[in-house]
Amino acid sequence: KPLCQALEEPKIKANSEELPRSRSLHTAFQALHAFRREQGHLPRPRAPADTERVLQLARSLGTQEDPLDEDIVRAFASVSAGDLCPVAAVVGALAAQEVLKAITRKFLPLNQWLYFDALECLALAGATQLTETDCAPRGSRYDGQIAVFGANFQEQLGRQKYLVVGAGAIGCELLKNFAMMGLAAGPDGELVITDMDTVALSNLHRQFLYRSADISKPKSVVAARAVQRMNRDVRVTAHQNQVGPATETLYGDNFFRHLDGVASALDTLEARAYLESCCFRCRIPLVDSGTEGLLGNVLPMVPALTEPLKPASAPGDGTFPLCTLRYFPCTIQHTLQWARDEFEGLFQLPAKHVNQFMKDPAFLEQLPAGKALEVQDSLRERPRDWRDCVCWARRHWQSRYHNDIAQLLHTFPPEHETSPGVPFWTGDRICPHPLTFNPDNDTHLDYILATAHLFAQVHRVPPCRDRKATQDILRGVVLPPFVPQERLQIPLTQEQEEAQVPMDHRQLTELTQDLLQRRQELMGDEEAQVPLMEPIHFEKDNDIHVDFITAASNLRAENYGIPPANWLMSKRIAGRIMPAIITTTAAVAGLACLEIYKLVWGCQDLSCYRNNNIFLRNCLLLRTQPLPPPTYRVGPSPW
Question: Which keywords are on file for this protein (predicted)?
Fold first, then answer.
């Protein structure tokens, strides 16, 4: 419809309960435009005469299908000259997502009118008593906010002491909003930001407080500086710590009781649950925010007023039964998780255990026999140069993609049956086939290069990325033929996989003596560095790490006839990267700040708070009243 017709015959996106409210807002906007044409300005904040004139104009329009809600029109008119950063963030995010839909031609665009309001903020006890004098302009950057909530409220905002946990995508949006709102910008205010992470290249496209020059710098420090640039009055402090059991001496009960509230911008369910438990125990308000792609949610927790936040459940945490990963993968997710476990088992844990053993030989007593064997292998296989690293990677390739599969097929041949007429290799059990190494195969060579590079890094050997030189080394490597083991037990269930066969006492004694002797030799070696090895932690933004994961996973997939994944898909799945879209984070941060307005007022009316769920794919926003906390009766009194 053209605008003139749509104004008179609006098609509004709203459910049946919200439709009358949206129609009243539609009429209120038309009356507001009529008032501005008539008076040449917007209604003055909280001016009764201007508010009543807007109401008269709304009544005269006569375009309502439902009875006009005059209270909504009055509330709308009384604050229409103001502007709030959180509302701008929500509306801006909705509009930006519609632009993206138009550009990408993905998802159904909004058809005609959508109204969003947070008029429950005006129903707060402090807001209903405001006068025109309270909301008059002061010539400050906060005049738009003062027009809505008054000057005294602005002073309250400045005195707030808040903790923001997480300076990622949501954290950046929250901090920007806080700077614009003036939270903790008064003489007694305090804003603490904590995040143990550093800025990475992959953060820059959606975490807008960071720039290329900030890569590898602490997020909290960079974010605090950005807040200061936006509003130099904000009293902000940057911490580089995780909020968890390990930091309870720093973030204990006394720390939390010093705060007025906490804003959570964490990306793991475990961390969010821990933070919620701290706030619940110390009776500190918490606003919890989260996103996943085009989905987002905001949940306020007010002690003694709302129910405690329920721990959310992840749709999939990336864990699978060990026997599935080791012997019976059937999806690319299985092979990628197997590759992640390989990375940790080859380049992180053995190096960590060797360093601890070299520091304290008594550490050996804490290790299972299998891990002690890994320490022995790591000390035996120390490379001297790049050739040794390539040879080690080649042997490992043969073990993983040929010998292990050949052994599995020896134990369970393709024609094996679990019972007469019931084949073993059926359903999710895909019968594999061993691979034959070819140095001219790109995937084979990619695996060798990445594996040898990481092995060299662990042992502090200079790496080499020359493919031709590496191929020449590989052509000279001769490996013994595979000889299957008879009567080798392969676990078929999780329980069998977890059941370990203990090493006998004689073998364990010999292993311990050998390790102690090797330690003594290395301690006397002047060229040996301390720590001896360099553990490598998987980093999704390190290309060599992703190269290994991609090649290792795709070779495993080839063993089992599973379609491979490209480099970017492997990085996303193995790095457990959740699709993060800046429009969602902006909307979620705006909704969170609307709840913080209510907390600053000290509102104890449950009907004013909202649990928020947003679905930008459909431009759908669900805002519901939180549930009260459960009550228990002890004797004659409820608790």
Answer: ATP-binding, Ligase, Nucleotide-binding, Ubl conjugation pathway
Catalytic site includes residue 279: no
In this structure, the number of other CB atoms found within 10 A of the CB of residue 385 comes to 11
- Token pair belonging to 15: 């459910």
CATH for the stretch 322-497+523-574? 1.10.10.2660
Q: Which two tokens stand for residue 260?
A: 């007025």
Name the token pair of 215: 């890569």
In this structure, the number of other CB atoms found within 10 A of the CB of residue 471 comes to 15
What is the total residue count of the chain? 639
pLDDT per residue as tens digits for the range 339-382: 999 999 999 998 988 888 888 777 776 766 667 777 788 888 88
Whether 257 contacts 268, CB under 8 Å: no
- Hunting for tokens 């080649």 — which residue is that? 394
- What residues does 419 pair with on adjacent strands? 422
Q: At what angle do helices 349-359 and 369-380 cross, to 10 degrees?
A: 90
Q: What are phi and psi of 532, to 5 degrees?
A: -65, -40
pLDDT at 317: 46
Cα-to-chain-centroid distance, residue 114: 29
Q: From 549, 423, 410, 432, select the one nearest 483 (Cα to Cα).
A: 410
Q: Which amino acid is at 328?
A: F
Does the domain at 82-315+580-634 match CATH 3.10.330.20? Answer given as no
Ranges of H-type helices in 328-367:
332-347, 349-359
The bridge status of strand 190-194 relative to strand 161-165 is: parallel
From CA 162, how far away is CA 264, in angstroms rounded?
11
C-alpha triplet 158, 162, 163: angle, nearest 5°: 150
* 633: Cα separation from own chain's centroid: 39
The residues facing 293 across adjacent strands are: 580
Using CB atoms within 10 Å of the CB of residue 45, give its burial: 0 to 12 exposed, 13 to 18 middle, 19+ buried: buried
The answer to whether 118 and 81 are in contact (CB under 8 A) is: no
Question: Choosing from 323, 389, 391, 608, which is the catalytic residue?
Answer: 323
CA dist 38 and 216 (Å) reads 57
Task: Say what the pLDDT of residue 498 is.
Answer: 54
The answer to which of 15-19, 47-51, 253-257, 615-619 has the lowest mean pLDDT is: 15-19
Using the structure block, give the residue that is written with the tokens 């302009």.
137
Alpha carbon distance 164, 183 (integer Å): 12
Q: 222 with 171: CB under 8 angstroms?
A: no
* Interatomic CA distance for residues 221 and 316, integer angstroms: 33
The answer to whether the beta carbons of residues 165 and 266 sit under 8 Å apart is yes
Please state the domain extents for the chain: 82-315+580-634, 322-497+523-574
Residue given tokens 């060798």 in the structure block = 448
